[in-house]
Amino acid sequence: MPLWLYIVSSVVKSAIVLGVLLTAVAYTVWLERKVVGHMQNRWGPTRVGPFGLLQPAADGLKFLFKEDLTPPHVYKPLYIAAPMIAVIFALTSIAVIPFGTYITIDGYNIPLQITTDVNTALLLILGVTSIGVYGVALAGWSSNNKYSLLGGLRASAQMVSYEISLGLSLVGVLILAGSFSLRDIVNAQGGYFLGFIPRWNFFLQPIGFFCYLMAAYAETNRIPFDLPEAETELVAGYHTEYSAMKFAMFFMAEYANMITVACLATLLFFGGWLSPFNENVWLQAHGAPQVVLALLPVLWFAAKVVVFLFIYIWVRGTLPRFRYDQLMAFGWKFLLPLALVNLIATAIAVAW
Amino acid sequence: MISIHLALFLIFGVVAVAGAVNLLAQRHPINAALSLIAVMAALAGEYMLLGAEFLAAVQVIVYAGAIMVLFVFVIMLLNAGVEERTEGSRVAIIFGIPGVLLGSILVAWVILRYSETEAVPAGALPGAPSTIGQLLFHEFLLPFEITSILILIAIMGAVVLASKPEPAAGGPSKKLATEQKVND
Amino acid sequence: MNPNLSLWLIPVLPLAGAAINGFFGRKSSRTAVSTVALVFSGTAFLWALTVAWRASSIPLPYQEYLAHWVRSGSFSVDFAFYLDQLSLVMLLVVTGVGFLIHIYSIGYMWEEPGYYRFFSYLNLFMFFMLTLVLANNYLVMFIGWEGVGLASYLLIGFWFTKDSAASAGKKAFIVNRIGDFGFLIGLFLLIQHFGTLNFTQVFDQVKPLAVESSGAGLLTAIGILFMVGACGKSAQIPLYVWLPDAMEGPTPVSALIHAATMVTAGVYMVSRSHVIFEKAPIALAIVAIIGTLTALFAATIGVTQTDIKKVLAYSTVSQLGYMFMACGVGAFSAGIFHLMTHAFFKGLLFLAAGSVIHAIGGEQDMRKMGGLRSYIPWTFLTMGIATLAISGIPPFAGFWSKDEILYKAYQTSWIYWLIGVITAFITSFYMFRLLFMTFFGDYRGAHVDEHGQLHSVHGPDLHRDDAHGHGEPHESPWVMLGPLVVLALLSTIGGLVGIGNHFEHFLAPVFGSEYPQKIAEGSGVNELLLMVISVILALAGATLAYVLYVSKPELPEKITDRMHGLYEAVLNKYYVDEFYAALFVKPLIGVSTSVLWKGVDRKIIDDSINDAAEGARHVSDNVRHMQSGNLRSYAGWIAAGSAVVIAYMVWLGVGR
Amino acid sequence: MVPLSYYLVLSGILFACGVAGFLIKRNIITIFMSIELMLNGVNLSFVAFAAHWHALAGQVFVFFVMVVAAAESAVGLAIIIAVYRTRETLNVDHVNLLKL
Question: DSSP letters along C437-497, please?
């Protein structure tokens, strides 16, 4: 592949992914409001556009034009840097996530992924996620507000704790795939059990998936693990002192993280872009255009991600918040041992 | 012409050195911690250049993601402030910085003067996770097990040291959780 | 292939007895203590007999190697034993007489506190004496040499609560040290010049050397130094002064250590080193002169002593002089022969004296005895035999050995002979004086009514609780009389082995055969004449004693009155002790006090140590400020140190 | 292509900065971070040497260094908390009871 094509394709891919991602973030917010609204027997946003579809745009505009207040006794450099750190690292992790197979342009296979297939993609995502803690923690500390500080402390402790369970829950999948490469992991899930059940890791690793989901919810500070921003205790937690675009950045970071988690869940446990049905073979046999063949997996991928986002919102609308000690006890005394048992069982099974 | 490899090396190197110097210059521990994170991230980049992908990832996850989080956590917990200047510190600065400068210049000169100038190609030694794992669980199994015991001891030691003199009944403290993270 | 004689058992058995009694004796009954002591020393004696029997069938000398001791460069010393005819004789004498005295001691010491201690010491002495006798090199011999000194010290000071006993012990020890000093220097000379202390190796190297007849040389020096050591141990002029004082110890100790065995160690050592002495005529002459003079000198003192044990002590010194005289004239086998017979009769004399003392409740002054013949007939009988033996009346043991010595002395020089014969006359006189004063005439002592009162005035047996409660002198129990009888028997017939030079032939492998040939040359008539002269003189001495102390008891007073000055001098042992005190002890104490104690010890040693401590305190007082407790200063020091190391490495690298 | 010595120089500079930080910093946490900086400097030379000598063991060493550093910082920070609890200060110059 010539260098220019590499650069051009990278730039184009980055632009598309970023655009899609930000839009997705915005519409996840809309989706959440809508779903939660219906769950709570109300309508959610309805006024702006049909079904309130333009609501995200209105919100964005509002954030942009609101006055950006900076409280007087904050530690300014970090106060400003914190939301940036949060959003940057939230968006970075999407870079290594593959959305589909390849597009062939002029004889060159261009992977549907911003970077090339990195051998240690999963590790990079974990690393970037763990760095994401700094955004929350620094925001809480630099605000010079005790609620914020408590929120920041809670967030860092919580995220650091659940990161272990998160990592361990993935090791089972890694053992099955034998690689850190997300593409390899997805490809390892091709095929069917008994001819019709997709060979997804979910069916092999149900406990692993459960652990992953719980840890991921905690990592993203979502209900029922949203202690860092528990409004009944800490006003708004680490972003109490933030407003306008800075506040929006935290919001974006949170939803971007949700999407990353959903993508990972899809890739690791639900076959990524692989279809549950065998329609690709059928389509190829019937001479479907190449573009369709290339984009159909992306569609499958997106569909699965949306399902996960819906589950996120569903959980939010259903479950109450943990108490902090319950949260820690759950993480250390239940989730970690469970993930370990799962790991050992998987290792033994594979060794057999 | 500077190769991309050298350019990347220089970029990461400059970031690392800048972070290190900033660590010295900053008086607030949290800034120092952030500088150190920058150094570590830059070093992860250097590791990538040297082909040590796994180490680069571990560097980020363990150092930047766990150890430094722990530092930041403690700084926040103790609400560490700007360090005050004292007589001793001035003496240390007057003698320490020139000494260190002199020392590093000397070492650098010696290394550059006397070491072989054989170049290290980018990604010269692919430190893939699988090969590292092979090595770790075969040749270095005993050290690996010993370090795991070390970590276990460190966990218990940290819990004992950091727990309040009167152990509170009930679930694990926040501290416990944080220390345990190091096990990653 | 040499048979294994297990020589090591002989010394180790008494050591075991000493250890058992020493560690557990305090809590044990007297019966148990005596059983242990007797069993171990008796077994040693039996084993010695076995060894003697088996030794007749194997080639001597026999060596037994036990362990390394010193390994330093080419110089090495082993724990090893050596058995030849000489050590065999000594072995039998030591274990045999030692065993008899052990038996005797049971009766004699029964009432004493510290009974176990006594037997522990006694067994310890046996161990060291046997080590001395069996050693195959000078260093192991020296262990025994020092060990018997230690045991002697402990036993002399057995009644350590009594001042005179304690100081007598110290005196013995210190005087012995002077002798040991000479011995040690002799050993150093041996090491320096021959590189070994092993008897056989030393003698093999000495044998080819020329006789130092023209002037004094290395061997002469070694010989004289050895003689100094022997003088100390065997109580010869000028170091004899400790032996009379050693009589403060219990009588069995006097018999065993200060008559029969330990004091003869010097004679043994000189005989053992005969190869060296034979090459050094001057040293040999010195031995002879010292021996002769001591014999005469001690005998004259013996005439005036009234303490029964002191008389015997001077007699011992005198007899040892005889032995050295024999060695000095090259008649080593005669010396050893006399050593053996002397062990019998002098041991007997002391034991009998002990029996006498026992009989009259601790009295030692002969002036308070007399007429004991009828009270203690067995003691009288045995002591009479011993007296006959020491006086040289045939056919008792002393006659044969003394005659042998006098004959050999005559062959070397008639002066030795003359003095020897005069000494024999004096010996006969004072021994019969002792016998007559003790057993004849009327009992002059007080009848003991109140227990202990009399004892507190006299005698070393102060602590004895006189449980007999008698008013009359009484015969000793058979446990004491038994050894007396056995020794009397030996004193009677022990000399017969010397007839026809049997003993000399037996020892010939050790001492060589040159002297027997000389004897063959000498005329038999001459020997018979000398024999007759000495017997006549001995009988004359006995007769004189009878006249002075039995038939005309008032005569001695007159004589002493007339010869007042001389008598006083002799009575006070020629003022030798006082002379030594003035010449050595006082200046030594003065110098020690003024120079060594106040000068060296206080000013130099103490002050230097104190100053060093003070200085260290000052320095650390200043240095400790470096230890500021400031973490970063520590870090600075570490950094500076590592910088130095790095700089050094760099310099190494650059300078390469 | 980057010569090995460049990596070594970079590692040396980082190490020297760590030493300097250890010496001139007063805050005990910062001092701790300086130690981590030194460890990182050493790690870099390990990795560079591993690449240079084609010996993967160097990377494994770095792995161990990281593990030990993690244990060390856990205990160290716990100690710092304990010290702060009793001394109410993080300035090492004020924590100087370790003297006569």
Answer: HHHSS---SPP--STTHHHHHS-SGGG---TT--SS--PPPHHHHHHHHHHHHHHHHGGGG
Q: How far apart are CA C180 and CA B145, in angstroms?
A: 68
What is d(CA C231, CA A163) in angstroms, rounded to the nearest whole number? 96
Domains and CATH numbers, chain D: 4-94 (1.10.287.3510)
Would you give the distance in Å from CA C412 to the centre of its chain?
A: 27
DSSP state of C520: H
| Letter string b/e over residues D32-69, b meaning 16 or more CB atoms within 10 A of that residue's CB | bbbbbbbbbbbbbbbbbbbbbeeebebbbbbbbbbbeb
Q: What are the helix (H) ranges across A93-224?
A: 121-131, 133-142, 146-177, 182-187, 201-204, 206-219
CA distance D2 to chain C (A): 24
Cβ-based neighbour number of residue C10 at 10 Å: 28
Judge: D96–C636 Cβ closer than 8 Å, yes or no: no
When the candidates are 1.20.120.1200, 1.10.10.200, 1.10.10.10, 3.40.50.1220, the CATH number that belongs to B2-102+110-129 is: 1.20.120.1200
CB contact under 8 A, A138 and B54: no
| Phi (first) and psi of residue C12, to 5 degrees | -70, -30
Q: Which chains touch D (3 or more CB pairs under 8 A)?
A: B, C
Q: How many helices (H) and strands (E) does chain D have?
A: 3, 1
pTM higher than 0.80: no
Would you say C302 and C283 are in contact if contact means Cβ atoms under 8 Å apart?
A: no
Cis peptide preceding A71, ω within 30 of 0: no
Looking at residue C462, its pLDDT comes to 42
- Asked whether A163 and A334 are in contact (CB, 8 A), the reply is no
The structure tokens listed for A320 are 């109450």
Hey, are the CB atoms on A160 and B66 less than 8 Å from each other? yes
Do C and A have ≥3 inter-chain CB pairs under 8 A?
Answer: no
CA pair distance C619, C183, nearest whole angstrom: 48
Cβ–Cβ under 8 Å, residues A170 and A124: no
Domain ranges, ordered by start, for chain A: 73-351
Residue A180 DSSP code: S
Q: How many other C-beta atoms are found inside a 10 Å radius of the C-beta of residue A244?
A: 16
The nearest alpha carbon in chain B to A164 belongs to B184
> DSSP letters along B109-137, please?
HHHHHHS---EE-TT-S---HHHHHHHHH
Q: Do chains D and B touch (3 or more CB pairs under 8 A)?
A: yes
What residue type is assigned to position B71 of the chain? F
Q: Which residues of chain D make contact with C622, given a CB cutoff of 8 A?
A: none
User: Alpha-carbon distance A9 to A11, whole Å?
Assistant: 5
Tokens of C100: 């008899």
Rounded CA gap, C155 and C124, in Å? 10
ipTM of the prediction: 0.63
pLDDT in tens, C636-645: 788 888 888 8
| Cβ(A31)–Cβ(A310) below 8 Å | yes
Task: Give the DSSP H or E segment for A103.
Answer: strand A102-105
Mutate to test the interface with D, among B125, B145, B146, B175 (most CBs of D within 10 A): B125
**Chain-chain contact of A123 with B54 (C-beta, under 8 angstroms):** yes
Q: Which residues 2-21 in chain D show a CB within 8 A of chain B?
A: 2-10, 12-21
The domains of chain B are located at 2-102+110-129, 140-184
pLDDT-based confidence at residue B117 (cuts at 50, 70, 90): low
The model's pLDDT over C147-192, given as tens digits with 9 standing for 90+, comes to 998 988 888 888 888 888 888 888 888 888 888 888 999 999 988 8
Coil vs helix vs strand at B53: helix
